[in-house]
Write a structure and sequence with these properties.
The structure is a homotrimer of 273-residue chains.
Chain A lengths: L1 H11 L2 E5 L5 H11 L2 E4 L6 H7 L2 E5 L8 H14 L3 E4 L7 H13 L4 E4 L1 H9 L20 H15 L2 E4 L4 E4 L4 E4 L12 H15 L4 H22 L6 H14 L2 H7 L2 E3 L1
Parallel strand pairs in A: 1-2, 1-3, 3-4, 4-5, 5-6
Antiparallel strand pairs in A: 6-7, 7-8, 8-9
């Protein structure tokens, strides 16, 4: 199943429009190319509707959010909805400021997202419409563990039902769910959190997978999450004692570039609940 | 000939002003340093004229174009023209939106460019003043091949005559031409298109070569294109089976850093038409 | 002494707010993670006060300065001052334009900085309130050498007295001083200037060190400067003949990721004046 999701990205090479932050944008572009998709970045209100129209899918990422790009996010999202293109939301730092929380909430109100991907703290803020987070990483108290997994799955399914989107919470254990079904994914490595933007990269890649697999949003998102985690593991094994987070970043993107559909099928480590 | 072009960059270390997109800007800065030049990035209308005045050349790149920086592009371009500094245009995504096409056309009207570098689809849009492209990559139907090369050369020379600029169309076969003479260059590797921003990087580097070689714009641009392609080949040979597009990006910049003028002279693979 | 400074960063993992340029921002984020801190980038006037409030320290870097972010820099700086958070200024390109010089002077007037880090030309411009620099690199005529070191130390201490900040001038010999005491640091490698943004990265890292070591601003800044220089040396030793500035960038960040406090203590090469 996972296998086909990646094959379709490689075969169709979907063009993905990204309105994203300037911190991790280069890595987002390279990871899209690595998985077989093509990136285009455009955030001016005067062109986002046209740009999104020539693409297959859209990622909206609110890192380094600013007043100039919020209307562009809304316009691009609405246009994508009109065209039936899948839209992925990455609510980076929701809860860290009123601007980010209120923008995320406005986006949720006005745009039908196919996928919402964040860490557990960000997603909790979205479910409540307010709350605080401590920056761009998940609060320790929120983390999904084996002990609270069942509760977390219920929470994620409920938010999927409310939003009509597939919800992906990533962390030590990832949960990808629609209203009925959850993938609990145990790929990845803790050191991935020592690289800036692995979450942003995954959101961009999820847009590619979902775009290339219409009608299979849940499976495609789960496949993207497994891809990122599995390649985090592969890249970790490649590391020498001199390597650190900068090389690890490169190795993960390299691993995605080289990942075969069969490897993904074999290496994806998940259970369904 | 190629050899002297690179030697002059290394010896003069020209300072290059870049008004460019936020996706590939870091790679543009590092490739300028790699070839022996120095980068400065500045895009605010209140400083671009001063900044460009202390530089030797200017690159204008319309990726992630926005309303804030268009007047800055025009002001910097005009100032550079006044000062006799060479200006390079990279019309990223011209044809993908009215904003990009009309901005590129306005830049062409108001600024005398020394070099215009793009893929064949972008350049076709500029010749027509309209048209559509499918994102930031060339359309398959437009591609320069051995079969249509002579026709493509004629097209490029005509656009060079019309604009007074050296035109560089890069792809599987690169064409660099003024009104009279074309270099048809067969350096490079297809996998370079799997890295974001190799085109942007080349445009920035072309500005450095042209700035360090006044009176030799055609040869300097051809040398920059050969440098990029040759280093794409060298970097490709360095790749292990674990490497992908992220390492390839690093290896290309590394190869430029280490390229000797003699290696460029020997490795440059071109014919003149 | 140096040792404890790094240990405190690793143990406390300070969250650092960065208002910075879009050229080197990704490297700034990754170097903060490499040394054990956490980054958050935010530059919109509507959120910077909130964001800086959840952080421990702030870096203001004026590369790619624009009118939109200047009020955000001032607001974030004032808020950090109110909260007693250390603020680091990196006056990138001060002297290269009136916009940069006047903004740097305004920031100096309105915000109490804990640390000001730049190259010698930038710092000279700040002491005078005007003057010119040739881009983002120090002018050759300004450079600190063994011959003019004593004079440079006196100059730096005087500026530290005037501003109440620790001043860090980095170059072949680095000087880190408050009004009374200067560290003259001989770590680093000349090739670090062939990578874009090593200065920006150091400024971000200095914010992390100072934040994790309250009451020890001078020592913490000196430790950050030694860390960068020492890791520049370590990374240089790792380089093969195929490596250039792109790999060097990665290796420096990797080296910081792997640096032990004991290594820093042993490798820091400084004298006090």
């Amino acid at each position: 199943m996972m296998k086909e999701m990646l094959e379709n990205v490689r075969n169709q090479s979907p063009l993905i429009h990204n309105i994203t932050n300037y911190v991790t944008v280069n890595d987002c572009a390279n990871i899209l190319l690595a998985c077989g998709a093509s990136p285009i970045m455009a955030d001016d209100i005067d062109e986002v509707e046209e740009i999104t129209s020539i693409c297959g899918g859209l990622t909206i990422n609110i890192g380094t959010l600013n007043q100039r790009t919020i209307p562009a996010m809304l316009a691009a999202g609405r246009k994508s909805n009109e065209l039936g293109h899948p839209v992925v939301l990455d609510p980076v730092g929701a809860g860290a400021s009123v601007l980010r929380t209120s923008t995320a909430m406005k986006l949720l109100q006005e745009i039908q997202f196919a996928v919402i991907r964040g860490n557990v703290s960000e997603i909790k803020v979205l479910t409540q419409g307010n709350g605080t987070t401590k920056g761009v990483d998940a609060d320790v108290s929120d983390r999904v563990t084996e002990e609270n997994l069942e509760q977390a799955v219920t929470f994620v399914k409920a938010f999927a039902q409310k939003t009509g989107a597939v919800i992906a919470i990533t962390g030590a254990i990832d949960i990808v769910a629609d209203r009925n079904t959850a993938y609990c994914i145990r790929n990845g490595h803790a050191d991935m959190s020592k690289i800036t933007g692995t979450g942003c990269q995954l959101s961009a890649m999820a847009a590619a997978y979902v775009t290339a697999n219409p009608g299979h949003t849940l499976e495609a998102t789960a496949a993207a999450v497994c891809t990122m985690g599995l390649c985090g593991e592969k890249a970790k094994r490649r590391m020498t004692e001199l390597d650190g987070n900068s090389s690890y970043r490169n190795y993960i993107i390299d691993a995605i570039y080289n990942l075969s559909p069969d490897e993904l099928e074999r290496g994806a480590n998940y259970e369904m609940r």
